[in-house]
Write a structure and sequence with these properties.
This protein is α+β, with helices and mostly antiparallel strands and 239 residues long. It contains ten helices and seven strands. A hairpin with a 2-residue loop joins β3 and β4. α4 packs across α10.
Length: 239
């Protein structure tokens, strides 16, 4: 595979240009190396090649740039995850489901960050995003992670099961064990066991310590993928 000046291989680039979504790649300094016409249109350009050299910090979505740069850093370190991204485009505010991942050259070094997104039009999922993000407005810049790949916990090398992630999601939103049990169709005793397992894995002695640690690692911005459905929306709408 021939790598072109730190950019994508020509064959990879040609595939990306044809993807039915927002596809782009950029260097490790947050500058676009290329992208398809849909991304160019987000930035207010009529041609894809106009993206080259553009940074998030001088794009229409510049108020989100610091957060996006952190995502690039995470991708550089191999953390790949799905997320809901707020984007202020040239034509107005949009929400994308997006992923970022590292692109490796023939020597195994990260040569670029690859991003791909699809515009989210499902109003139910967008409503979930706003409910999750009630403390810090979603449209002020931070993304919401939607994944079953343990992105958040990868930062300090802890592994939780999908059920454990679901339980802590509701604990962080003030739901009782009884209420969580009803939502997940399990017993309150089982919920308690899951929470005890989480505390053990994260070296917490109490639920208060667990909640404090969860806030420290931004777990309030994490949605287990298995919960992104109408049932989740209903459970969050109810006290």
């Amino acid at each position: 595979m021939q790598i072109c000046s730190g950019n994508l291989d020509i064959s990879v680039e040609s595939v990306f240009m044809q993807l039915p979504g927002y596809a782009y790649w950029r260097d490790l300094e947050n500058n676009f190396l290329g992208g398809n016409l849909m991304v160019a249109n987000l930035a207010g350009f009529k041609a894809a090649n106009k993206l080259e050299g553009l940074s998030d910090f001088n794009a229409p979505w510049c108020k989100f740039a610091t957060n996006y740069k952190q995502q690039d850093h995470d991708a550089y370190n191999g953390l790949v995850y799905k997320q809901l991204d707020p984007v202020m485009s040239a034509s107005g505010f949009k929400v994308l489901t997006s992923t970022k991942s590292p692109y490796y050259d023939k020597n195994g070094n990260v040569a670029a960050i690859i991003g791909f997104g699809v515009e989210l039009t499902c109003t139910e999922i967008i409503k979930i995003a706003y409910l999750i993000d009630s403390e810090t407005p979603f449209d002020q810049g931070k993304s919401i992670v939607v994944s079953n790949n343990n992105y958040i916990y990868a930062k300090y090398e802890k592994q939780l099961t999908q059920r454990e992630l679901e339980c802590i999601f509701y604990v962080l939103r003030g739901r009782t064990y009884k209420r969580i049990a009803k939502i997940l169709n399990i017993s309150p005793r089982t919920v308690e066991e899951y929470i005890n397992n989480i505390k053990s894995k994260l070296c917490c002695n109490t639920k208060d310590e667990l909640i404090e640690l969860a806030y420290k690692y931004d777990l309030t911005r994490f949605i287990p993928e298995s919960l992104v459905n109408n049932k989740l929306l209903a459970s969050l709408d109810q006290t």
